[in-house]
Each structure stands twice: as structure tokens, then as C-alpha cells.
Amino acid sequence: MKKRLLAALLAVLLTSAHGQRNELSIIPQPASIALGEGVFTLPREISVITVKNDELKKIAGRLAAQLSSATGYTVNTSEGNTATSGSVFLSLVTDPMTSKEGYQLKVTANGVSLTAADPSGIFYGVQTLLQLLPREIVGKPAAKKNEWAIPVVTIDDRPRFGWRGLMLDVARHFFTKDQVKEYIDEMVKYKFNLLHLHLTDDQGWRIEIKSLPKLTEVGAWRADKTGTFGRFSPPLPDEPKTYGGFYTQDDIKEIVQYAKDRFINILPEIDVPGHSLAAIAAYPELTSTPGKYAVNSGEQLMVWPGSGQHFYGLIDNALCPAKENVYQFLDKVFTEIAQLFPFEYIHMGGDETARNFWEKSDAIKGLMKKEKLKDLNEVQSYFVKRVEKIINSKEKKLIGWDEILDGGLAPNAAVMSWRGMKGGIEAARQGHEVVMSPTDFVYIDYMQGDAIIEPPVYATLRLKKAYQFEPVPDGVNPLLIKGGQANLWTEQVYNTRHLQYMTWPRAFAIAEALWSPKEKRDWNNFSARVERHFERLDAAQVKYAPSIYDPIFEFSKKDTATIIVKMSTEIEGLSIHYSFDNSFPDQFYPKYTSSLTVPKDAVAMKVITYRDSKPIGRMIVMPIAEMRKRAGIK
Ligand code: ACM
Questions:
Q1: Are residues 260 and 150 in the same domain?
Q2: Angle, to 10 degrees, between the axis of helix 177-188 and the axis of helix 496-503?
Q3: Of the residues 167, 302, 311, 352, which should be mutated to test ligand 1's pocket, given the most ligand atoms within 8 Å of the CB?
Q4: Confidence band (pLDDT; 50, 70, 90) for 142?
Q5: Ligand 1 centroid to 419 CA: how many Å?
Q6: Domain holding 345: CATH number?
Q7: What average pLDDT does range 103-122 have in this prediction?
Q8: Best label site of 92, 185, 225, 367, fewest CB within 10 Å?
Q9: Of 167, 417, 418, which is best to mutate to test ligand 1, by the most ligand atoms within 8 angstroms of its C-beta?
Q10: In terms of domains, do 563 and 540 share one?
Q11: Which atom, in ligand 1's list, is nearest to the CA of 416?
């Protein structure tokens, strides 16, 4: 009985949207939370006190600015070695047991004390503190509240992994310096510490390289097309190249500094030898196939025949591994990249290199003979090893997509495993460092709900599946798994609102997989916290996908022509209402309880979910033709 009461109480705490005690809604879930009694109410004059440390001073300054703009209270910052009554005190401790990014946050009725071994820990403790405050703390525009209370609590916290990344593709669609900064602002709230910028691809070269000016004069610009990327009309010779942009080196310095102040490393990716059409448009001599090239504007470029056949390119978008000028080019590029980005790794891409033009190249045949390379995997491996030498010569380490394993891994390379976990497992077996970013759990360019309502992409990754991401496979040395990251490719992402929609809430799941103790993973508890964070995103005017509220459909056939529908939901507590008569269902329409037979003359099924008598899912219209197709009825 006692247990049931406790569970009910917990449920109230978890679901009370407007309660002050929203302390159980921290994402990612901290390692340990000891909840006390009562609250600390912010005084109308707040002191943020830090021990003497430049980084803490910056953190305190930003915290003070946020507290003061949200509350309208006076907030002072000062230096000192002790907390005063009612203050927020940030201090560093030398404790060899404390992990670098860990922290202890103590809230009493008298104030807040945050300690860590490193300023980054203080920074993450501040993120937790902000999540303990009412959601209006992130409100836009600032909302007036009579009282700002923080629950009394002690939180001891530390990350599970040191590499907690998001990858942003700024090549397919360009996002400005300020938009990248906004993305950083959003990701640090959830304790990500790495932003991987995919800076180059067939559709654009996005970083100024001073010794190779045509990369941005030519490579950063393309025809402006809107619709379904990858299926655009064929290019015309006179199309104006009006879409694009790039970061100047000053922009990059500004982004890197902005990121550093927020404990984010920036991993730059220059994707070679494939995905290089923008560079080739600027310098056609880099490819194996002589010709005139243009930056791709989203027309079909590659063919994926499926059924085990190798993909091929319609245009040669790969650098030629047999040409010395290619390595001279890469030396120039990586010299400047290494000077701009302080992070220890440079990402060389290496994924999805079409081989059909390499197969035809006499220069490559000559290289194979000279270097005794028996196939094109070994040709790619030869290329990667040479690139590694260049990158190592700039005092940087190479990381690449898991194709760099093909034909033999370069001696010091780290692998980013994207085609599932197997590349990562193999690299770790060979003693190499690994970052896990498998499509099946962390590809946040995929749809997050049913294709009938989501903007179309070729695959789906629901929040619940993302929440199952486990970066350390059985039998692998965990010390070689540096962490993981979610990847946001932007072929179908045209603007920042949609960038947010694709990122949230799935990045919550990835953040938790990378930060929180594995044994704390709990879907029901997490999904309840996600909903509280939707309220925070609403307050902050950040867009997110509400797909967890929409049903999951399963269609099958009975006899040869009858469609059977099964529906379920990703989260608990929703009721599904439906119609087959073309009208819009509401909560008084039939409620789905078990599988349905679609009436034979129905034109469409319409479906919506409700919770507590309120519509919560989106109105979904499923046409009969779509149901027939999915049921396998010809
Ligand atoms: C990739 O998704 N092509 C790395």
C-alpha cells in the first residue's frame, strides 16, 4: 500500500506541469539526486559569488544576465571564497575523485552552492540549476512571476562519456554564424560538449581557405531550389548561383571562441575523397575525370541500386587518389583547418565514395600497379593513409567515417561508426578509438513518426528507439569508445525552425545515453521528463517534433483485399480516435481498442490522439491507397 502511495506521489511530481517541484525533470538524468524538504526562493537582490577564476567569472556573468533578464531582479556578481546567505556560490575544489566535467549542486533553503574540479563542471551544474528553476527562466519574451523557487536538493553528477556530440551538416543547407551559435546555446542546455561541423560536400564548400580562394568563390554557391532535395529538375547552363554562403576565417574564430566559452569542442569535417563536387567545381583538376563541373543543387547525383549492389555516381564527385596535386591541395586545406580549430581531431569524411569513375581511370590503374594495391578498397586505404600523414603533420589526429576501415585502417586513425556499430566494433578490436553514431539509433535526419505526416525522408527513427542507443557493445573494450553523437544531415532541412524540429526531442535521448548512468535508463520516466521539457522549449520558442503523440500504424491484409489496421502509441496514456467516413474525429468518435477492419468502400482513415479530453496528436489522414500499399494489396 505504502509503495502504491509513493508511486502515486511520484507520478504527481512527474506530471505536475505547473508545480514548483519540477526537480525530477532534469535531462540528462543526473547520476544522483537527493531531494530535500522545502525550496530556496530567489531574493529580489541576488548575489552570484565565484572564487577567483576567469572561466568561472564568465559563467557567472552569463548566469547573472539570464537570471536578471528572466526575473527582473537585481543580480550582482562578485569574487569571494565563501557563500553569503541567499547567494549562488560557484567554487572549485581539488578532489581527485571528481571527474573533469562532474559537479555537486547543493540547494538549501539559504542558497545555492555549486562545486566542481573544473570550470566545465560548474558550467554543467549551472545547466542543471537552470532546469530546477521554473520554465519561465528560459522564457521569450521574459514572463513575470511573483516567486522564483528552486527545490532543496543535492545533486552529484558526472558524464558517462567525454564525447557527447551533435553533427550539423552546413553544406547541404547553409546556416549562418549566428544560427550556429544559437544551435550551440540549445545543445549546451543538455550537456553536449562537441559540435561536429560537416563543412564540405557536393552541395557546398562552407569555409574560407585563403590559399584556395575558388573553394568559396565557386564552391559555396549553387542554384536555389526548393522542394524535395535529391529530386530536383536537371541543372540548366544559365541558372544563377544564388544559394549558399560560407564562414570566413574570422567567422570561424568567433564560432570557435563562442563554443569554447561554453565548453564545446568544434570538430571540423572536410569530406574527401567522395562528396567533393563543390571542391571539384572550383578545381576540376582534382578529379580523375576531365570535364567542367558545377556545385550540385540537389539534383540526383548518386544511384543506390540496393540489393547488395554497389552505389555509383552519375558525375565524378571524388578526388583522384593517384594525383599528387590532390595531396598538395589537401595539405593546404588541412594547414589552414589545423590553425583555425583547436580541437585535437580533424574529420576527413571518407564515406560513400563512388568507385565507377575510379574503375575507368588509367592514373588509378597505374597507382595500383606501382603501389601493389589489389582493389579499390586498397586504393581508398592508400588515400586515407596519405591524408593521415598530412593531418598528423599538423599535430592533429584523424577521424573518419567507418569506410576508412575498408582496405586497412590508417595507423593512428579514430573511427566514427555510422553504418551500424560493426565498424566501431572492428576498429576497437584493432585497438583504435571509436565514436559511435549508428544510423539505427542516432540519425536525426530521419523521420521521427509516420511518413504520412512527417516531412519525407527515406527512413524513420522514433524517439523511443533513439532512447535505446547504447554506445558500448558487448565484448568491446569500453576505454576505446570515446562516446557518441547524433547526426543531422540537412538535405531536407531548409531553415532553423526545422533544424530544431529534427533535433528535439531526439537529442534529449542521445544526451541521456551519453551523460547518464546506464542503469538509470527508464523510458516511462524519460518520456514524462521530455514532456516537461517540451514546455521549456515552448517557453524558449524552440520548435520540436510532437511525433510521440501520434499513433504508430501497422497494416496487414485478410483474404486478398481486406485491410486490417493495428495502432499503438509510443507513450502511455493516450486514446486514439478514428473515422472512416471522411469527417474529422474527436474524442466522441470511436476509440481504438483492438485491430480494425477497414470498410471496403472507405476512402481514408482519419485519426487523432487525445489525453485527458484534450487533442494532443496531429490529425492524420491515411488514404486508402497508402493503406493498401502498406498492407501489400495490389
Ligand atoms: C554518412 O551518413 N554518409 C556518414
A1: no
A2: 20
A3: 352
A4: confident
A5: 8
A6: 3.20.20.80
A7: 97
A8: 185
A9: 418
A10: no
A11: 4
Cα 340 to ligand 1 centre (Å): 24
pTM: 0.95
CA of 311 to the centre of ligand 1 (A): 14
Final residue before a domain boundary, out of 547, 570, 604 = 547
Ligand 1: list residues with CB < 6 Å. Answer: 351-352, 401, 418
Structural domain count of the chain: 3
pLDDT in tens, 502-559: 999 999 999 999 999 999 999 999 999 999 999 999 999 999 999 999 999 999 999 9
User: What Rg value do the Cα atoms of the chain yield, rounded?
Assistant: 27
Measured from the Cα of 487, ligand 1's closest atom is: 2
User: How far apart are the two ends of the chain, measured CA to CA in Å?
Assistant: 56
Residue 96 has what pLDDT? 65
Span 50-80, pLDDT tens digits: 999 999 999 999 999 999 999 999 999 999 9
User: Is it true that the peptide bond before 273 is cis, omega within 30 degrees of 0?
Assistant: yes
The grid cell for 295 is 556545385
* Exposure b/e, 112-151, CB count within 10 A at least 16 = b: bbbbbbbbbbbbbbbbbbbbbbbbbbbbeeeeebeebbbb
Q: 406 alpha carbon to ligand 1 midpoint, in Å?
A: 15
Average pLDDT for 100-105: 96
